[in-house]
Amino acid sequence: MAACDVRLLRVLKIGEEFGEAAEAMTGVLGANPRKGNSHDWQDVEKELSDVIVTAMVALATITTDAAKVLDERVEHLIVRSRGEGLSEAGTSDGVHSSE
Description:
The chain is an all-alpha fold. The longest helix is centred in the N-terminal third of the chain and has 27 residues, at 3-29.
């Protein structure tokens, strides 16, 4: 399998894991009348953890320093959530974005 195929499959796996988290959440809420309350909050916790781990594996597949990339992104999101460093245009770099 080519390296680009591995990267693609690892990113697509995030979607699969998200689907399982969504299914668990639906089960907690009993939103599927056919299945009722089929999951509990521990199921949701496990599935969300799988999403996080799978995303980190995908990130590590495309960069040699996944921890640094994640740390920088988390710091950016913290600063943004506090409203720090925003220009008049609404973002830290003056460009509107859908981050």
